[in-house]
Design brief:
alpha/beta, 36% helix, cytoplasm, S-formylglutathione hydrolase, EC 3.1.2.12, AB_hydrolase_fold, serine esterase
């Protein structure tokens, strides 16, 4: 096991050497670079950057290390949080207050960015719902985007390899959650890898993206057609691959006052996912939260319950 000091603030060279000894991801000559650290609820919030093979760009993620990991050799469960459109790793780290519950339950939280940044692709910064801040957790197949926009591979392969090699996590106890586009990512990635993710929840997820404007735009742009997105559509995946006997429940919270749900265009379609779960006999808890919107005020209100949900599911 890596000594506790290597991940709780050792010099970068020491951390990089420990990372290389631990068999870090191929191609990372420079390893990880710590950009910031703050004490919180007895643990540490850290921001890291690294050169990504998946995206061909620098990538940033934040991690919360609970106080329990200061004991050398202690490995704890890990919860990945995937953010929504326009967000970075900072939104959840600074606004959701997940760290309090994570400290109480002894859980690491990992929050990656939502896309590559600065790839130099024409048009990548032109709209909020495609390109920068909007990777949609797929691997692009359209030539223009295929070199850099590979967030599916980043989240499912590269980032976990980095986390498992560098941080005190138990790779057999992994959960995933997210918000909006990130809720879509959490549900679809978990359903494609149910052996890896033992617990899944979401806040206001895009549940049926092949049937809403956000998803239609993303799948057409990154994958060449809406139909190609069925493999990354939570409702379609549940119908095709469900049920998932390893999950006693899936937890989704949805604000009833969310303008992307109750407005003129329903981008989220949780009812479609609920019907798919019913059809396949998959346990689902879908909670409509009266008066709540799509913001981090909503997420922060129910984050403690989501962390507790994952802690129960990931108990050794």
């Amino acid at each position: 096991a890596m000594a506790a000091r290597a991940f709780l603030g050792a010099p970068r060279a020491v951390a990089a050497a420990a990372w290389r000894r631990a068999g870090g991801v191929r191609g990372f000559a420079s390893g990880l670079e710590k950009k910031g650290e703050n004490r919180m609820f007895g643990g540490q919030v850290q921001k890291w950057t690294h050169a990504s093979e998946s995206t061909g760009t620098p990538m940033t993620f934040s991690v919360f290390l609970p106080p329990q990991v200061t004991q050398a050799g202690t490995k704890v469960p890990v919860l990945y949080y995937l953010s929504g459109l326009t967000c970075t790793d900072d939104n959840v780290t600074q606004k959701a207050c997940a760290q309090r519950a994570a400290a109480a339950h002894g859980m690491v939280i990992v929050a990656p960015d939502t896309s590559p940044r600065g790839a130099g692709i024409e048009g990548e910064d032109e709209s909020y719902d495609f390109g920068s801040g909007a990777g949609f957790y797929v691997d692009a197949t359209v030539d223009k985007w295929a070199k850099n926009y590979n967030m599916y591979s980043y989240i499912t392969k590269e980032l976990p390899a980095l986390i498992n090699a560098n941080f005190p996590v138990d790779s057999s106890r992994v959960g995933i959650t997210g918000h909006s586009m990130g809720g879509h990512g959490a549900l679809t990635i978990a359903m494609r890898h149910p052996d890896v993710y033992k617990s899944v929840s979401a806040f206001a997820p895009i549940c049926n993206p092949t049937k809403c404007p956000w998803g239609e735009k993303a799948f057409t742009g990154y994958l060449g057609s809406v139909g190609a997105g069925k493999e990354h559509d939570a409702t379609e995946l549940m119908l095709a691959r469900g049920p998932f006997p390893g999950w006693k429940d899936i937890l989704i919270d949805q604000g009833a006052g969310d303008n992307f749900y109750s407005g003129s265009v329903n981008q989220l379609l949780p009812g479609n996912f609920e019907e798919a779960c019913k059809a396949k006999g998959q346990p689902l808890t879908l909670r409509m939260q009266e008066g709540y919107d799509h913001s981090y005020f909503f997420i922060a209100s129910f984050m403690d319950e989501h962390v507790a949900f994952h802690a129960r599911n990931l108990k050794a």
